[in-house]
């Protein structure tokens, strides 16, 4: 039996509480089993829930009720209106989920969306979950963001920085490290024996032989040479405008991209509903839906006119479960 997945609170004024309820309704009969580290008051008694002492109790109750490890919000929660006074609950939920995975009580963590600027206004110093989780695992700098969907996997080499900073911080060493981490994760967590990795250029036409930029020759090309010398199947640098086409995508298992939006725009355009954000390079499994807090459509749990689509969260929970089984060599 696989351990349950820990689902975090997310921003309580976003769609996280509703997603937790919708996901439990969708998965209660089939699994994977998960429990929510959240405030039960937000469930409005719209679904059955049961407070549990810890993850080991989740399996027994899952088919009858959403298992909840209580995390109390300090300020009143108004859907659509985030409140930085609830940042401590948001952060505590993530920290507790990580502890459960580190102790082996949970198989992985799936995070509900947070609003980065709300946490920042409460003093939180990380730009997102990805960097915070690396710090909690004492792996700062080793975190790698992958977005995975049925049609595409993408990995940005630089993550939550301005475009200017992304270009300035691009190095051969970082491209090599991110590509090696991706190669390893595709083997251990996704069951791909010989991963094929496509490396994106940075500039239009991948620099057009230096006429439109030189990073392909000075930074990206040398990284590809190092990776090939280590036996990896890497290709590129490819012109970024064509490498995500339907004919190009079957040629690789993941695209290594130079900055956040080069990676995330094609994936979210192709597969917003089923895209999953995965943090690799850490000793724990972490997945997340590919969307944010969606404050514009947040409302009370259980309302009949909800527009919230739980598909991406369902994909994230299923992927966390499948990755943990691959890790254990049990990929049934
Ligand atoms: N994993 C995360 O924690 C994460 C990921 C992305 C964005 N964010 C945060 O979310 C906040 C809002 O970001 P944004 O507005 O750019 O993106 P968003 O994904 O929250 O919303 C974009 C649009 O998609 C819609 N949408 C999103 N999820 C949906 C769902 N499940 N069902 C139906 N419609 C859905 C929204 O209503 C909105 O119209 C920001 O503060 C950002 O930092 C967090
Ligand atoms: N960059 C992600 C996205 O746009 O989907 C998102 O901001 C999530 O980041 P974290 O997982 O680091 O919170």
From TrEMBL:
Substrate binds at residues 129-130, 268, 277, 286. One of its GO terms (biological process) is pyridoxal phosphate biosynthetic process. It comes from the Bacteria. Its cofactor is Zn(2+); Mg(2+); Co(2+). A divalent metal cation binds at residues 160, 205, 260. Its main location: cytoplasm. It is an enzyme of class 1 (oxidoreductase). Pathway: Cofactor biosynthesis; pyridoxine 5'-phosphate biosynthesis; pyridoxine 5'-phosphate from D-erythrose 4-phosphate: step 4/5. Homodimer. Catalyzes the NAD(P)-dependent oxidation of 4-(phosphooxy)-L-threonine (HTP) into 2-amino-3-oxo-4-(phosphooxy)butyric acid which spontaneously decarboxylates to form 3-amino-2-oxopropyl phosphate (AHAP). The active site is located at the dimer interface. Belongs to the PdxA family. This is 4-hydroxythreonine-4-phosphate dehydrogenase. It comes from Gluconobacter cerinus. The lineage of its organism: Bacteria, Pseudomonadati, Pseudomonadota, Alphaproteobacteria, Acetobacterales.
